[in-house]
C-alpha cells in the first residue's frame, strides 16, 4: 500500500516512523509520503486559507492551493515526484517476533464495496486512489471501514485545519479519487492530523503480513461487532486477584464460550446500542440471546 498525507504540519507524522507502522514500512508492505501543503501555496505569504464566504469566525482552506496539491498527488507530478519516503526511526526488520506466523495462509480482505450513495460517493473504481478527508462532519469511521481501506493500494489523506477545506475541493476531487469524508468521533479536534494518525494505524495493522500473528486481529473488538472482553496474563495470582479459572483450564471450547459471554456482557454495559443493532439484524445466536436474558434476569434480582 502507498499512503500520501497532505498537511501544513508534517511534523505531526513522526509517530508513523515508530512501532508497527514503521515495521510495515521496513517490510516493504507500506510506503508513506508526507507532503507540506505550503509547497503548492503561491504569493509572498504562502497563505493556505482565506475568510469564509458568508461571514463567520475562523478561516477556510482555499481551493487554489488544495486543488493543485491533490492533482499532483493523484498524478505523481510536481513536488510529489521528488517527495521523500518516510523511513523507520529504529529498524526492527531483522528481529523476528516470537509470534511471527508468516505463511498461515491469511489471504486478506476482499470486500471493497464501502460506498455511501447518500453522500454522493463515487462507485468503487479500483484505479482511483481513495481520498480520505477527516472531518467532524464525516461519516463515522469504523473497524469495517478500516478493513476495507486495508485492501486498497493507494490512500491519500487531506488534513484540514481551521474551519475546514472549501467544499468544492472535496466535490471536484471525485473526478480523480474515491472520496471518503470520515469522522473519528463526536468531538472537534483542531485539525485532521491526529485523526489521520488514528485512521492510518487502524488500517495499517490490518494489511496482510503487518501483524506478526495473522490471527490476532480476528479477535479484535468490533471484528464480530462486539467489543472485546477482558484479557489476562501470568502470574495466575496478583495482589490477591486471580486469573479467571476457566482461562487456565486448557478447555478451549469452554474458554471460547466464556470469552463470548464476557464480550456480550461488556458490550451490553458500554455499548447497549450495538447489542440492539445486532439483535435487530438477527446477528446474535440463540446462546447469545439466552446469556443476555440471563444477565437481564440477574440485574433484575439485584435491583
Ligand atoms: N477534524 C476535526 N475533528 C475531527 C473529528 N472528530 N474526526 C475527524 N477529523 C476531525
Automatic annotation (TrEMBL):
| Taxonomic source organism | Corynebacterium mendelii
Sequence similarity? Belongs to the RNA methyltransferase TrmD family.
A biological process term (GO) from this entry: tRNA N1-guanine methylation
User: What subcellular locations does the record give?
Assistant: Cytoplasm
UniProt keyword list? Cytoplasm, Methyltransferase, S-adenosyl-L-methionine, Transferase, tRNA processing
Enzyme class, broadest EC rank? transferase
What reactions does this protein catalyze? Answer: guanosine(37) in tRNA + S-adenosyl-L-methionine = N(1)-methylguanosine(37) in tRNA + S-adenosyl-L-homocysteine + H(+)
What InterPro entries does its record include?
Alpha/beta_knot_MTases (IPR029028), tRNA_m1G_MeTrfase_C_sf (IPR023148), tRNA_m1G_MeTrfase_TrmD (IPR002649), tRNA_m1G_MTases_N (IPR029026), tRNA_MeTrfase_TRMD/TRM10 (IPR016009)
**What is this protein's name?**
tRNA (guanine-N(1)-)-methyltransferase
A single GO molecular-function term is:
tRNA (guanine(37)-N1)-methyltransferase activity
| Keyword Transferase listed | yes
* Domain of life of the native organism: Bacteria
Amino acid at each position: 500500500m502507498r499512503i500520501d498525507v497532505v498537511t501544513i504540519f508534517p511534523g505531526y507524522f513522526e509517530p508513523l516512523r515508530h512501532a508497527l507502522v514503521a515495521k510495515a514500512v521496513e517490510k516493504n508492505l507500506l510506503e508513506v509520503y508526507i507532503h507540506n501543503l505550503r509547497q503548492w501555496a503561491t504569493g509572498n505569504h504562502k497563505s493556505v486559507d482565506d475568510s469564509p464566504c458568508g461571514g463567520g469566525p475562523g478561516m477556510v482552506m482555499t481551493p487554489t492551493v488544495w486543488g493543485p496539491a491533490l492533482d499532483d498527488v493523484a498524478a505523481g507530478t510536481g513536488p510529489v515526484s521528488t517527495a521523500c519516503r518516510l523511513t523507520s526511526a529504529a529498524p526492527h526488520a531483522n528481529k523476528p517476533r516470537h509470534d511471527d506466523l508468516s505463511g498461515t495462509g491469511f489471504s486478506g480482505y476482499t470486500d471493497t464495496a464501502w460506498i455511501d450513495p447518500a453522500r454522493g460517493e463515487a462507485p468503487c473504481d479500483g484505479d482511483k486512489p481513495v481520498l480520505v478527508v477527516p472531518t467532524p462532519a464525516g461519516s463515522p469511521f469504523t473497524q469495517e471501514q478500516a478493513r476495507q481501506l486495508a485492501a486498497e493500494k493507494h490512500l491519500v489523506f487531506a488534513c484540514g485545519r481551521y474551519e475546514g477545506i472549501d467544499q468544492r475541493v472535496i466535490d471536484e476531487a471525485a473526478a480523480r479519487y474515491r472520496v471518503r469524508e470520515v469522522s473519528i468521533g463526536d468531538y472537534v479536534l483542531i485539525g485532521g492530523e491526529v485523526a489521520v494518525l488514528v485512521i492510518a494505524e487502524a488500517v495499517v495493522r490490518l494489511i496482510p503480513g503487518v501483524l506478526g500473528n495473522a490471527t490476532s486481529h480476528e479477535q479484535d473488538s468490533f471484528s464480530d461487532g462486539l467489543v472485546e472482553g477482558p484479557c489476562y496474563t501470568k502470574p495466575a495470582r496478583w495482589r490477591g486477584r486471580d486469573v479467571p479459572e476457566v482461562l487456565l483450564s486448557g478447555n478451549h471450547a469452554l474458554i471460547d464460550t466464556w470469552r463470548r459471554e464476557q464480550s456480550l456482557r461488556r458490550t451490553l454495559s458500554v455499548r447497549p446500542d450495538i447489542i440492539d443493532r445486532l439483535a435487530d439484524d438477527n446477528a446474535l445466536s440463540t446462546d447469545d440471546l439466552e446469556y443476555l436474558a440471563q444477565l437481564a434476569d440477574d440485574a433484575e434480582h439485584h435491583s
